[in-house]
Design goal:
- By secondary structure, the chain is α+β, with helices and mostly antiparallel strands.
- The chain is about 60% helix and about 15% strand.
- It folds into two domains: about 325 residues, Outer membrane efflux proteins (OEP) (Up-down Bundle); about 90 residues.
- The chain has eight helices and eight strands; from the N terminus they run αβααββββααβαββαα.
- The strands form three sheets. A four-stranded antiparallel β-sheet has the order 2-5-7-8. Strands 1-6 form a two-stranded parallel sheet.
- Helix 4 packs antiparallel against helix 6.
- The longest helix has about 70 residues.
Length: about 450
Amino acid sequence: MKNSIFILLLTFTLGAQAQVVKTLTLKEAISYALENKADAKKARLSVKNNEYQIQETRSGALPQLSANGNLTYNPILQTTVIDGAGFGQPGTIIQAAFGQPWISTAGLSMTQALFDQAVFTGLKAAKSTREFYQINEQLTEEQVIERVANNYYQVYVQRQKLTVLDSTYKNTTKVKNIIKGQFDNGLAKKIDLDRILVKISNINTMRQQVINAVQIQENALKFFMGMPIETQIEIPQKAFDVSVQSLVETPNTANRSEYLLLKKQEELLIFQKKSIEASYYPTLSLTAGYNFIGQGPQFPLGGKPVDGVYWSDFSSIGLNLRVPIFTGFSTRSKVRQADIKLQTVKVDLDDTKLSLDLAFANAKTQIDNSLITIQSQRENAQLATEVLDNTRNNYIQGLAPLTDLLDAENSLTEAQNNYTTAILDYKLAEIQLIKSKGELKSLLNN
């Protein structure tokens, strides 16, 4: 029994030691996400897969070589009716069987496209296709960075709220001890003690709610990072300094990944249209083949002339020309569909540019407002701290009622939470401003 308890305690101790808290700066969180998040991994795999797609396209311009073989057994040979005059027997009909019961062929065949407009267009589109997937990878990484940064700051806010509640609980407990001492000495009313106990109970309830919110927000952050949920993390306070962003220059929308991706999509649609139009062009290909054929009354493989099996070779070289004349307007319909897709992506380009301009304008406005709010709430929190200190001293000296003290504590808690929320609003707007400049990866340098 003692051994079992010892093993259980040892296991618990080792498990507790294994849960090392990982301190995460924003840069570390982003770097981890870019390496481990599924979206980033899939984007890299898409780039790699595209290289194989390009190789597949290029193969259409290379010779196609194949080996072939065939073995046929004819139990009954087909007879052909021939005029006997050709064999010195005019006026007669001869029935002759051609071929042998066993026939085997083996050889090589080659096809080389000499002119195929669809293949040539595909080769020209290869570079744009590669760039499309590279830009898509960049856009995916930016989306990962944005989600991680947003959730990173959300965790900070929840933890700050928890810190405020812990401080409030500590201060309120001090007041409770004072009131209890006064009550025990007959200097305070029981209702005052009851009210402060209710206040502490409410703080505990709020604290538990915030603890739950912190855990949920941390789990969300770890999900967006691709980090195991059971990992314990800690965010350093110094990561949240407020620094004024440059709001003077207007970002160049044409450099944004979202816009560049649509432009590459437009290029690819143009190539797609040209590939469809290639159906109007003729195609020309070179074919060549070299084969051996064996025939005889018995299984030909390994057979020799003494066995009645004869082997011979033959070859051919040819040109295949295909000229399209009428396809029932199928090609024309496909070309018009390609035109509609091009018009659609042009509309998307205009809308995306408008959306990106709107995001920058909103982020700029939010930055300005947040800086004003942060300054106001910082001063408000300092003033609320002074009011609470004065009210507490007045209450202890009997110059202020308990209601004033509780109101002062509530005001300080609210002011501190408002200050924290203002910082969050600023940091979220800062992310959007950095994003609008196309500089999200600069967060990796902080």
